[in-house]
Design a protein that fits this description.
single chain, 380 residues, alpha+beta, Helix Hairpins, HSP40/DNAj peptide-binding domain, four-stranded mixed β-sheet, three-stranded mixed β-sheet, 12 helices, 15 strands, 25% strand
Length: 380
C-alpha cells in the first residue's frame, strides 16, 4: 500500500513550525494510543504512522532531505519502517506528553524499543512495573448506584529479604561485561549500525554478582493482596477504572505499574439502559388502556410508583417518570428518567358475560372489516 505524505499524516502544512508539529503529533498519539484502543489494529497502525512521520518532520536534517527528495531522501535515516531510531522522539518525550502516561512502554512494544537505554527509559532509571488487568462483574443495580468492591489478586512486590535490590547481603551491582555499562549493543547491517537493549543485563548496564536466593536476583516476589475499589454511580458496561500504583512493582526499586479494572455489567431482568435513562415494558389490560386509570410499577431502587394511564392508550405508548433513572455522573443531583412502554394485552379467555359485553360494545362503537394500513414511520 502506498505511503501517505508525512505532512498529510500529521495534518500540518509544509511550513508548519516545530511547535505545531509537536502539537499535531501529540493529538494523534493520544487519540490512537493502544491503551485507549485495545485490540484495534487500525488505531495501532495510525499510531505507528504518526510516529514515523514525526520522527522525520521533527528532525531538521531529515525534514530537509524529505522536503527535497521525498521518501527516497530519508530511506535509511529512520523514516521508512523497519528498525527505526526514535532518539529524537525520546529526547522530546517529556515535552510532548508531559504526565499523560507511560508512552515509553508503548513505543517499546510497537517498535521494538530503542533510542534510550533500557528500552525507553532514561539510562540508569529502574524499569517501571507492569500494568495489570482485573475483570469485575457487577449487578445492574451496582452499576447504576455505584458501590465499593473488595478484590483479591496477585502482583509483584519488592522482595523483603533484599529490599528489592535483588542482591544478597555483601553483594552488589557491577558493570555489565557485555555492554560495558551502556545498556546497549550494536550490530552492523550493511552501512548502518543498529542499537538494541543488551541481552545480558536487559538494558540496565549492570548485573548483580550475588543474586538474592529468595527472589533469584529479580528483587520481586509474587504476593496476593486485597484492595477496595470504588465504583462510581452510573458506570457503563465495558468501562475501565485505573487504580494507580497497584500493578506490579518495578525491579530494583522501579515505579509500580497500575491496575486496570474492566467493568462487566450483568443484564437486568426487566430494565434496559440508554445512557442515564432506563426503559421497561409493563402489561396493561385492554380495558385499562381504553378507559384509563392507575397502575403501580416498580423502579430500579425498589420503590412502588403509581402511574396514570391515559384513556385510549395505544399499544406501545411510552410514559415517562422523571428522575427515576440512573444517577448523574460526578455526583450530579440530576438523574435520568424512566420510560414505561405500555403493552396492551388482549384477554386469552373470556367468560360468557364478558363476551356478551364486548359484542355489545362492538355494536355500539362500530368496527371495520377493511382497516387501512398504518404508515411504518408512525410505528417508530
Amino acid at each position: 500500500m502506498a505511503k501517505r505524505d508525512y505532512y498529510e499524516v500529521l495534518g500540518v502544512p509544509k511550513n508548519a513550525s516545530k511547535d505545531d508539529v509537536k502539537k499535531a503529533y501529540r493529538r494523534l498519539a493520544v487519540q490512537n494510543h493502544p491503551d485507549k484502543n485495545p485490540g484495534d489494529k487500525a488505531a495501532e497502525e495510525r499510531f505507528k504512522e504518526a510516529t514515523e512521520a514525526y520522527e522525520v518532520i521533527s528532525d531538521d536534517q531529515k525534514r530537509a532531505a524529505y522536503d527535497q527528495f521525498g521518501f527516497a531522501g530519508v530511506d535509511g535515516m529512520g523514516g521508512q519502517g523497519g528498525a527505526q531510531d526514535f532518539t529524537n522522539i525520546y529526547r522530546d518525550f517529556e515535552d510532548i506528553f508531559g504526565g499523560f502516561g507511560d508512552f515509553s512502554s508503548i513505543f517499546d512494544n510497537l517498535f521494538g524499543g530503542s533510542g534510550r537505554s533500557g528500552g525507553g527509559r532514561r539510562r540508569g532509571e529502574p524499569p517501571r512495573g507492569a500494568n495489570l488487568r482485573y475483570d469485575m462483574e457487577l449487578s445492574f443495580e451496582q452499576a447504576v448506584f455505584g458501590t465499593t468492591m473488595e478484590i483479591a489478586y496477585s502482583h509483584d512486590e519488592a522482595c523483603p529479604v533484599c529490599n528489592g535490590s535483588g542482591s544478597e547481603a555483601g553483594g552488589g551491582r557491577k558493570v555489565c561485561p557485555t555492554c560495558q555499562g551502556s545498556g546497549q549493543v550494536r550490530r552492523s547491517s550493511g552501512f548502518f549500525s543498529i542499537a538494541s537493549p543488551c541481552p545480558t543485563c536487559g538494558g540496565e548496564g549492570h548485573i548483580i554478582d550475588k543474586p538474592c536466593r529468595s527472589c533469584g536476583g529479580s528483587g520481586l516476589l509474587k504476593k496476593k493482596q486485597k484492595i477496595k475499589v470504588t465504583i462510581p454511580p452510573g458506570i457503563d458496561d465495558g468501562k475501565r477504572l485505573s487504580v494507580p500504583g497497584q500493578g506490579d512493582a518495578g525491579p530494583n526499586g522501579g515505579r509500580p505499574g497500575d491496575l486496570y479494572v474492566f467493568i462487566h455489567v450483568k443484564p437486568h431482568e426487566f430494565f434496559e439502559r440508554d445512557g442515564y435513562d432506563l426503559y421497561c415494558a409493563v402489561p396493561v389490560s385492554i380495558m385499562k388502556a381504553t378507559l384509563g386509570g392507575e397502575i403501580t410499577v416498580p423502579t430500579i431502587d425498589g420503590k412502588k410508583v403509581k402511574v396514570t394511564v391515559p384513556q385510549a392508550s395505544q399499544h406501545g405508548k411510552m410514559l415517562r417518570l422523571r428522575e427515576e433513572g440512573v444517577p448523574g455522573a460526578n455526583g450530579s443531583a440530576r438523574r435520568g428518567d424512566m420510560y414505561i412502554k405500555l403493552m396492551v394485552q388482549v384477554p386469552q379467555k373470556l367468560s360468557r358475560k364478558g363476551k356478551e359485553l364486548l359484542e355489545e360494545l362492538q355494536r355500539v362503537e362500530g368496527d371495520t372489516d377493511t382497516p387501512r394500513p398504518i404508515k411504518l414511520s408512525d410505528l417508530k
